[in-house]
Amino acid sequence: MTIFSVQSTIFTRASAAILSSNGLKRFSFASSFSSNALYSSPLPKTKKRRFPIVSAVDIGGVTFARNDVVRDDDPTNNVPDSIFSKLGMQLHRRDKHPIGVLKNAIYDYFDSNYAKQFEKFEDLSPIVTTKQNFDDVLVPADHVSRSLNDTYYVDSQTVLRCHTSAHQAELLREGHRRFLVTGDVYRRDSIDSTHYPVFHQEDWLEVLGCGVTEQRILKQSGLENNVAWAFGLGLERLAMVLFDIPDIRLFWSDDERFTSQFKKGELGVKFKPFSKYPPCYKDISFWISESFTENNFCEVVRGIAGDLVEEVKLIDSFTNKKGMTSHCYRIVFRSMERSLTDEEVNDLQSKVRDEVQRKLNVELR
To answer: Which Gene3D superfamilies does its entry note (predicted)?
Structure first.
């Protein structure tokens, strides 16, 4: 959306200043909304699971069973158990967590400078319709973000929100004019120290502001004669800088050596590394198929190794005389809490090789 083009300028001003309920619980899989989602080939379902299966999660007082979100028999569903287990954790609502500390600092900034002018929404369900996630914010029908390669689909009409802007049009239609929306968002992504399939975002919209929001969005919300200003930011990246947190996986750690370092209202406390366990490198090479995507490969690796994988990086690629293309990826295994054994890493690598060949239609080398 064009409203995000002003993100860096706006937040630079706000962050400089920072440094010196009301929940909508709607959920429906039987949506009548029409949306032309693009589908790449979904990954075959597997019965092997490394993660303990969570039977249900609570989101804003509403309980969702695993089978409502993780559907092994639905070819349009690509939500793994590792992602389902993150639903409802809401790190942004934990006052002693770096994400919560940062969110509250942003709230304080707006409360101090624009007292009682902005409503705050931080408990909206991350399970939304494709209309909310794409159509309402004018994502083109053929945009790559609609594909199974980029977005987690519950079914063909329902997704895990890719951005908190998914709630923008609904809030406008309900009569809200100035608001901050904070929440967890979900995107299939690469694996390294700054990328994670779940992160937290905050949007700010003001009707009668500077006029950068697409007019079609306002018109569809019944605000044809208005202008609006909006911006969005990812809280993890900013928190990594403010708190000197080197690895995005740490935000999801329950290790007291991490969680005990942060306190409510203390912005910018510098993280003290409690240990740096040795990495273990494993390479895997294979001939790719036409349907191969790196995101699908990373999902396979993450589905087996979870947060024990630190990075997946393409280190070599070539095409032979027959037109076949080979990729070689280096997988870096490293726990944030303990040393991994050779036996453990070898077992993970073996499972990765098996699953990559089975799921991605590639030929191992």
So the answer is: Bira Bifunctional Protein, Domain 2, Ferrodoxin-fold anticodon-binding domain
pTM for this model (two decimals): 0.84
- Mapped onto helix, strand or coil, the DSSP state of residue 276 is coil
Under DSSP, the state recorded for 209 is S
| Enclosing domain of residue 358 | 280-364
Residues in contact with 334: Cβ distance below 8 Å, sequence separation at least 6, in sequence order: 277, 278, 279, 280, 308, 310, 340
- The answer on 336 and 234 residing in a single domain is no
Tokens found for residue 261: 């370092």
Q: What stretches of the chain adopt beta strand conformation (E)?
A: 56-59, 62-65, 119-121, 127-129, 153-155, 158-160, 178-186, 198-207, 228-234, 280-287, 309-319, 325-333, 363-364
Closest CA to 277 of 346, 195, 341, 329: 341
Report d(CA 346, CA 339) in Å as an integer. 14
**Any domain includes 179:** yes
Name the more confident of 274 and 151: 151
Give buried/exposed letters for 203-229 (b at 16+ CB in 10 A, else e). Answer: bbbbbebeebbeeebbebbebeebebb
CB atoms within 10 A of CB 196: 21
319 part of a folded domain: yes
